Amino acid sequence: MADRIPNILWQAPLMWLLRRGSTRPGPDQPIGALLATLPSDERVAAATACLPYANDETRDLLAAEILEAIGRAPTREGIRRLAGVFDQLPLTAKRGAVALLRGQWAPAAQLGTDRRPGARAALATLAGHADEPELVEQLATLVADPDARVRAAGVASLSRLGHPDRQAGDSMARVLARLLDDPPEPEAEAIVRIAASALAAPGCPSAIESRLTDKAHPAHALLRSLLRRSKDPEVSGWAVRWASRPGLVGPALDRLGREPDEQSLSITLSLSHLLCAPDRVGPVRKAFARGTLFVPSMHRLSTLPVPARRAGARWIGTLATPPAKGERLLGMGLIDPDPSVRHACVRALISCAPASTLVRDFCFDPDARVASTALAGLMTRAGNDAGARRETAARLVRSPSARVRTLATRFMRAERSGAREALAQRPTDPTDRAALIRQLRKNLRDLDPRISADAARLAARLG
Asked: Are the C-beta atoms of residues 43 and 35 closer than 8 Å to each other?
C-alpha cells in the first residue's frame, strides 16, 4: 500500500495540487495515477512539495515520478524544483538527477540567491554530487551563508569534492584558495581541514599547497592549530606525511610527539614506513634523540592489530635507539602471540641492542624464522659474550627446527675450527640476496683458506 495516499500529514500539499486536476483523489488511489492527471510542471511541483513529508518507500516513488516528468518534458521551473529538493532524494535518485541535469545547470544555479535556506542547502548538496564548475564556484558563497544548514551542506560538498580519493579539479582548487584567503569564521577550521586533506593526497594543487605552507598566510596558523588541538586520528596520518614538507616539519613533529589514542596510533604506525625515507628520517631521529617524539613500547601496542605491532617494532629499529631504551621498548615483544611480530621485534633488537640478553631469549622461540634470525644476530654481531654464544648454540643443536639446528651446528663447527670470523662476514639478513652474493665473492678471494673454503661450500650449496 506504499503507493497509495494515506490519510497523514504529508498528503496535504499533494491533495491541494491534485484538486486542480480533473480527478478528485480518494484515500486509496495510487500516487502515480493521481500525479499523471497533472501537467508536467504541476506534477513535479506536487511531488517535490510532498517529498519532505514522505516515508522511505513513498520517497522512492515520488523521486521516480519527478525524474520521469522532467525527463519527458524538461522545463526551467521543473529543473529548479528538482535541484531544490536534491538533498532529500534517495541516493540512486540523486545519481539519476545528476545525469538528467547534465548540461542544464543554469536554472539550478539560480538557487544560490533563493530566499529559502532549504533551496540553497539543496544547491550546495547538488554541487558536491555534480562536480560541475558552474555549481562548485557557488560553494564559496554557500559556506559563508547566514543559515547554518546551508553552511553545513556547503562544507559537506567541499569535503566530498576534496576527498583524497579524487583529485581536486580547477574549480574546486579556486574555491578552496579563495576560502583560505578569507575563511568565514564559523567554518574556518572545517575549510582548513578539507584543504589539509587535499594537501596530504598526491597531486595537491599548488594554489592550496602554497597557502598552507606559507608561514605568513592566515591559513598556515589555522593548520598549525589544527595539528596541535585536533583529536581526529586522520590528522596523525597527515603529520607523518608532512614530516619532510617545508614549512610543516615543526608542527608535524609536534603532533608526533604527543601520546595518541589507540586509533591515532594505529594510523601513525600504518604509515611509519614513510618515516624511514631519507628526507624524513633525519628530522625524526633528531626529535627522538631530544625526547620529543612519542615511540610506543610493545606493551603499549599489545592491544593493537598485528600489522600495527609489526610496524611499531620496525619503527623502533630504524630510530637509532640506545640499547637500554631498545630493550625496554621491545622487551614485551618476546611474548607476543604472533610470530611475525616477534620476528620484527628481534630484528629491531639486533639493530639497536645486539648484545642484549633478549636476543639469546629469542633464539629459543618456537618459530623457526624468529629463532634462526636471533641466532644469526647472536653469532655475527660484536659485543656478545663468547661463552653465552657457545652455550646457546650447543643447546640449539638439538632444536626441533632443522633450520635452527643447521645454523647452530655450523656455528659450533666454526668455533671449533677457529673460523668464526668467516661467519661474522656473512650478511645478517638471509633474504638480502644481492648482499650475500657480494660477500661470497669477497670471501672466495680471501687469503685465509678457511674463509675461502667456507665461502666455496656455501656457494656450492646455494647453486
From this structure: yes
Rounded Cα distance, 327 and 63, in Å: 64
Cβ partners under 8 Å of residue 453, min gap 6: none
CB 192 within 8 A of CB 226: yes
User: How far is residue 40's CA from residue 38's CA, in Å, rounded to a whole number?
Assistant: 6
What is the phi/psi pair of residue 365, to 5°?
Answer: -65, 140
Q: What is the pLDDT of residue 429?
A: 53
What does the radius of gyration of the chain's CA atoms come to, in whole angstroms?
33
CB within 8 Å of 182: residues ≥ 6 apart: none
| Backbone phi, psi, residue 41, to 5° | -65, -40
d(CA 429, CA 231): 39
> Higher-confidence residue: 394 or 439?
394
Q: In which band, very low, low, confident or very high, does the pLDDT at 450 lie, cut at 50, 70 and 90?
A: low
CA–CA separation, 268 and 259 (whole Å): 11
d(CA 31, CA 54): 12
Q: How far apart are CA 453 and CA 183, in angstroms?
A: 73
CB 85 within 8 A of CB 51: yes
Strand, helix or coil for residue 362: helix
Average pLDDT over residues 100-114: 81
Instruction: Give the Cα separation of 110 and 48 in Å (integer).
Output: 18
pLDDT in tens, 280-323: 888 888 888 888 888 888 888 888 899 999 999 988 888 867 88
Cβ pair 412, 394 in contact under 8 A:
yes
Q: What is the pLDDT of residues 33-80, one digit of tens each?
A: 667 667 777 788 888 887 877 777 778 888 888 888 888 877 888 888
Quickly tell me which residue has 564556484 as its cell: 137
Grid cell digits, residue 136: 562548485
- Mean pLDDT (the chain, rounded): 80
Contact 10, 54 (CB under 8 A): yes
Give the residue, 254 or 110, on which the prediction is more confident: 254
Give me the half-sphere count of Cα atoms (radius 13 Å) on the Cβ side of residue 63: 24
Listed in order, strand segments (DSSP E) in 107-195 are: none
Q: Which of 103, 105, 31 is nearest to 68 (CA)?
A: 31
7 has which bridge partners? none
Determine the Cα–Cα distance for residues 318 and 85; give it in Å rounded to an integer: 55
At 362 the pLDDT is: 92
Residue matched to cell numbers 490519510: 7
Q: For residue 159, give the C-alpha cell.
A: 569535503
Grid coordinates of 32: 502515480
pTM (predicted TM-score): 0.67
